[in-house]
Structures are given as structure tokens and as C-alpha cells.
Amino acid sequence: MSLFEYAPAPESRSIVDIRPSYGLFLDGEFTAGTGTPRKTVNPATEEVLAEVATGSDEDVDRAVRAARRAFVKTWGPMRPADRGKYLFRIARLLQERAREFAVLETLDNGKPIRESRDVDVPLAAAHFFYHAGWADKLEHAGLGPAPRPLGVAGQVIPWNFPLLMLAWKVAPALATGNTVVLKPAETTPLTALLFAEICQQADLPPGVVNIVTGAGDTGRAVISHPDVDKVAFTGSTEVGRSIARAVAGTDKRLSLELGGKAANIVFDDAPIDQAVEGIVRGIFFNQGHVCCAGSRLLVQESVHDDVVAALQRRIGTLRVGNPMDKNTDLGAINSPEQLARIRELTAFGETEGATCWQPAGDLPAKGYWFKPTVFTDVSPAHRIARDEVFGPVLSVLTFRTPDEAVAKANNTTYGLSAGIWSEKGSRILKIADQLRAGVVWANTFNEFDPTAPFGGYKQSGYGREGGRQGLAAYLEASK
Amino acid sequence: MTHVLDPDALTGGGSLTGPLPDPFADVTRSNDAFRAFLHGLPGVDQVGAQARVTQLGTRSIKTTAKTWAIDLAISMVDLTTLEGSDTPGKVRSLAAKARRPDPDDPTCPPVAAVCVYGDLAGVAKEALAGTGINVAAVATAFPSGRASRAVKLADVRDAVAGGADEIDMVIDRGAFLTGRYLDVFEEIVAVKEACGSAHLKVILETGELVTLDAVRRASWLAMLAGGDFIKTSTGKISPAATLPVCLVMLEAVRDFRAATGRQVGVKPAGGIRTTKDAVKHLVLINETVGADWLDPHWFRFGASSLLGDLLLQRQKLRTGHYSGPDHVSID
């Protein structure tokens, strides 16, 4: 028992009005789906939040037709500055209703309210603001004097950042003049449906944004619809591969943002206390459900013991529990399936000989939970050092020289992100140059900004989101 | 197998039996050796330190936790007056407030100490006789510290003779910033000796050291020299106490205890005016060094106006409404 016990400080859920059931958002209207509806659950309590429609092939076809109509009749021909106005309006509405979105995101996803309030929702709004500014400046995007939109974008997004991933997909697509059919993840559809209300509130012309909920079959229908010009997917490498296969041989453009197994490299001249905070942020942010999570810690052997001791001390102060409590650091695992995968991989870690460290204390009886976990004595051959766990599980490896650090960091089938901790600027620049990762953070981790392009190498996918580079995924260059 | 970490790792630094051999005995053998040691401490990333305190600043401390925190904060206040215009009357009135911060509520705890200039230490001592509240006196040519060592030591002896239980000294920032670390160290050692049984608080004046790297070095220097407390500021320089500075100092006392077994206190001073600020500091302690420092023996607030706001918030929690500034006595 600590001397200073923080009293419960729960955020009120009364601000958000969850309907008992939700339909699909097609052509500017909510309409019933023809598939069998699914229930969406609060992973922290296992309480059923709502019943959500499932989009069938036929529903997806209606959505794509609506998107095509909007592209041809309203959104495509619209003056770019006017498209920008709509995006600015959406961004402002997201800010105005920020608390509602944050509460709903936490209820549906299980992430701590502190993160949905301070990261997910403000960043989602920032993405709309940023891209709103681009709408009438596309001739400066580096794609020729008059780049053209592609048409209808079919977008499939994951459950780890439901609203933020929606913003990453929808904002650039709309700013560049495309229309959208979006499929949210089946376990976290609610904020996308609240976003649909914002589209109505902003008077966005019907058909510009269509949201079709459902599971894998619905997603497959979206990406394989013949009238979709562009497919954008964020999710697992396995599904990404099957999408690449499905799209191969068509003239659809494709961008994929997939898994990762990022190295977070701590040199012996690092600011150790801040590095430990960065390690924590790298792997325990959003319960480790982050594709760019710093899941492989590479520590220089000369500071290994200090860093591990500090890390062990620090994970004991992480507050695990009710995601709606404003003081919670680590929330619930999003689904029983994900929890099973985390358990399976950590069990491998132990049988393969790594040492597992977890803080004391009990987890809530209901819901899906996993303690923050650190594995030491991990070898690069262990599965926990190679496979993406997508949970709050850190593997600690060591290195002796900068060359060894680079070799080990790049020794992965992924290449999404990496981190470098050192007080020596020249070293940071040199190592960053040698890392094959789309994002390299220096003396920070999991820091996002709409102006910075995000994307991967190798099995982490292709195409970039955010920044000027991100616009290329939704534009046809002109000569 | 899964190892469950000791939940008390942050509190209680393990059981230490007897005096440990001093692992740093030789770092002060020459100025070069001392500089090599201090410059070899891990650097501090300013952006990261700021981000950490900002994140901890979002902790929501309500109801029972807030009640507890306010009473603890009151008991940690070094109620301070350091004006050229100070008089015995002013000091007596401050002492009265220190004993009974809220005259209407006997359950309100007294503050930790009253902090005055050295010449008024005797007045404060008399006014606080039998209360258990300490008298702290600033010394060593406070606030600038620009005087000869002989004058500084005489200043300390004078305050101790006047009855001061605690001496708040300033370090020689000029010497520190030019890299004459051993001079600064030896001066603290001499002052500590002059203090006798009085507790020594070493003011780093972090607003003049500017960088967090310098704060970490100065903290280690002061602790190695035997300081019982490290204190941020005189209150005469802006910025005074800031949360990133306090974070770095807390990390220093934590690491120092882990290395030597000796616990050193921390006192942010100046610029802490509201209950919210005070609670942020308590959260910072709780999540950086643990409960061992959540005690007036190991943590103080150097402040004058903070107490008024703590009392207002305390009344608000008790009665459910805000009373207003006239319900708190002025000093």
C-alpha cells in the first residue's frame, strides 16, 4: 500500500449518448445493414455497449455507388478552397465534441481516458486541420502543377486507434478530392459512427464519406469492389498480404501500413531517466497496441543493469485498471482474441528461457487485462524478439558497439519505426541514417504529428501517411 | 518463470545495516577528479523532463486524496519572510500563523518551520518555543552569496547562536559556473561544520544554473558535501522552483540514497503559490522517489503565499464552498 493513494477520479460517461443499435452510414444517411448485426463490447467490463450493423456485399456496393456519385457530381468538381472549408469545419467539430469522442473511444477500445483525451482526439483534429490547409495548395505537393484525385477510396482501419486511424485515412483522401468508403474494425466501430454524425453536422455532401461496419468479409468486399480506385489499409501484416494479393492485377492503387517490431536503442551516453520514460512510452502507451511500439529494447551492455533496474522500478508505478479513471496509465486489452495472442507469445518467452518481470498487484476480475511485462535475457532468436506481440510486453536485448546496435535493430522482417537515445547529436544522425525504418525518433518515442510522414519498410508496408509525402497516396501526378 | 517485482521498491531503500563504505570518498581528491565525476553523471534531456512533469501534472487528485495532500502540504511549509523591511513584530505574527494556520480549525496541522533572516532567528525561536516548529535562517550572504568565506561562516554561526534549527545557505554560483567545483564543495563542508547540530539546506539557485545538467551536478555536489537538504532557490531570482528542476533533484536524491544509503531532503522554494502547484509536487514525489519523501522531514515547500491558498482549499473541502481571502489571516 502506498502512503499517497489517489482517490478514484472517473470521467463521467453521461456526456455520450450511446444508442442501443447503429446502422451503416451510406450516402449521408444512417440505414439498416443487411448482414447479421454484431455486438460491440467494453473490454474493461465486458458490458455490451451497442449492436452494430454488418455491411453485406450489397451494402458495400451501395456505399461505393454513393461515393462514386459524390465524386462525379459534388466533391470532385467542388472548388478546392470549399473542400478545405468542410475539412476545417469537421476539425472544429471534433474539437468541440472532444470529450464525447474521448469517452466513447475509451469505452469501446479500453484505452485510458488520459490517452484518448490527450492524444487520440487532439491528434485526429490536428490531422483534419493540417489537411484542410492542403486542399487548395495541391499544386505545391511536388506532384506537378495539377495533380488529380484518384476517385473512390476504400479504407480499412484497425482497432488500436479507431478515431485517429480514421482521421489519418479520411482527412488526406478528402483534402485531395477523393470520396471514401471506410470500414472500421469490428471491435471498435462506435467513434467512426459518431464521426458520421459530425459529417452530417458539418453538412458534408452525401456520399463523400460512407461508413460500412462489419468484420473481415465486409472489409474484403470494400477492397475488392471493382469500382474502388484506391485501397488503403492499416492492420496486421497477415491481412495486408492477402489484400495485396487481392488487389494485384487490378489498376487499384494500394497503400499498406502493417506491423512492426521496433528497436529502441539506448546508448551508454543517453539521458537515462528520460530514456526510461521513453521506453515506457514506447511499449506501454495504448497497452502496447501500437504498430510502431518500441517492443525491442536494445541497451548498451555498459548501462544494461542501470537501465533494467530503473525500468523495473518504473513499471511498478504504472497504474493499471479502470480506463475511465483519469489517473490510469494502462487500460484493458481490446479483445479476448488479442489477449490470447499476448498470452501465447509471452508463454513462448518463458519456455525459450527469457526472464519475465511483472509488477505485483491484482488485475480487475472482469474484462481483458494483461500486466506490463518486461523480458530480460532475451536473445534475437527468441520469438518474443521477432514476432509482433501487440501488447504491453517488452523484450530487452543488449549490444556492445554502434555497429552491433544497427545490425540487431535492422535484423527484423519489419521496418516501421525505431528510437535512438543518446546525448551525442552526431551519433544520432549517423545511426538514424543506417536504420531501415520509416520513422526514427531521437530522445523521444511514439510522438506523432500530422506534418511528419509515417509508414514502413519491408513487411511494415508501403506508402506514407501524413506530411506532404502522404498526399501522394491519394493523387495522380500531373506532368 | 515470472518474477513479481517488489511493490515497495520505490519506498524503503532496503535495510541498510551500519554505515556503508563511502563509494565516492575519492571523487573530491582534486578539482579535476571532481569535475570528471560530476560531468560523468548521466545527462538530462530537457524536453523529456518537461514532458514527464506535464504528464504527471494531469493526475487528478480528488476528495480523500486531496484532503490528505493538503494537510501534508501544510505540514511541509517553511513559512517564509525574507524582506529588508522585516521586523520582530512581523516575525512574531508569522510565528503565530505557523502554530495555528487556521485559527477557526484546531485540526489544521502546524507548518514545519518559519524561515527568516539570521538576525531575527532569536525572535522566531522565542515565539515558537515549545511548539516543535523549527526556526530556519538564511545565511552565507543570502541571497547572492557574494562575500568572503569568513563572513559567510560568521553569518552561519551567528544564526545558529540565535537559535536557528536549520540553516539555508546559498552556494557560490560564480565558482560553480566557472568549474571550480571543489571550492564550492569545500565551502559547503565548512558551513556544515559551522552548523553544528543545525540541519543544513543547500540552495542551488537553479534559476542561475539554468540547465538541468547543471542542476543534477550541483545536487550531487551538495549531497556529497554533507547537505541535509537540497533547495532550489532563494526566491529572489526568476525562475525559482519549477517542476522539471524539482524532478531532476528528486532523481538525484533517489540515486544518491541508492548509492550511499543516505537520504537527503528536497525543498523547492519560490513560485509555488497554489494548492494545485503543491499537489503536483506531491504527485511528483510519489511517482519519482516514493512515499519515503512524503514527510516534512524530507520535503519542504519554501513559500509565503502558498499557505493561504492551502487553507482556502482546506476550508472549501470541509464546508463545500469557497469562503474568500478574508477568511484566511494575513501575516
Itemize the secondary structure elements and their pairings.
The complex is a heterodimer of chains A (479) and B (331).
Chain A: E1 21-22, E2 24-26, E3 29-31, E4 38-42, E5 47-52, H1 57-75, H2 80-96, H3 98-109, H4 113-134, E6 148-149, E7 152-156, H5 162-175, E8 179-183, H6 190-201, E9 209-211, H7 216-224, E10 230-234, H8 237-247, E11 253-257, E12 263-266, H9 272-284, E13 296-300, H10 304-315, H11 336-351, E14 355-359, E15 373-376, H12 383-386, E16 393-399, H13 402-410, E17 417-421, H14 425-434, E18 439-442, E19 461-462, H15 467-471, E20 475-476
Parallel strand pairs in A: 1-5, 7-8, 7-10, 8-9, 10-11, 12-13, 12-17, 13-16, 15-16, 17-18
Antiparallel strand pairs in A: 2-3, 4-5, 6-20, 11-19, 14-15
Helix pairs in contact in A: 1-7, 2-4, 3-4, 4-5, 9-10
Chain B: E1 2-5, H1 31-39, H2 46-56, H3 63-75, E2 77-80, H4 88-99, E3 113-117, H5 121-127, E4 134-138, H6 149-161, E5 166-170, H7 173-177, H8 181-195, E6 199-203, H9 206-209, H10 212-224, E7 229-231, H11 243-260, E8 265-267, H12 275-288, E9 301-303, H13 306-319
Parallel strand pairs in B: 2-3, 2-9, 3-4, 4-5, 5-6, 6-7, 7-8
Helix pairs in contact in B: 2-11, 3-12, 3-13, 6-8, 10-11, 11-12
Give the C-alpha Rg of chain B: 20 Å
Detail the poorly predicted runs of chain B: 13-18
Can you give the mean pLDDT of chain A? 97
What is the number of domains of chain A?
A: 2
How many strands in all of chain A?
Answer: 20
Query: Strand order within the widest sheet of chain B?
Result: 8-7-6-5-4-3-2-9
The largest β sheet of chain B comes out as: 8 strands, parallel
What is the chains' assembly state? heterodimer
- β-strand percent of chain B reads 5-15%
Strand percentage of chain A, roughly?
15-25%
Shape of chain B: globular
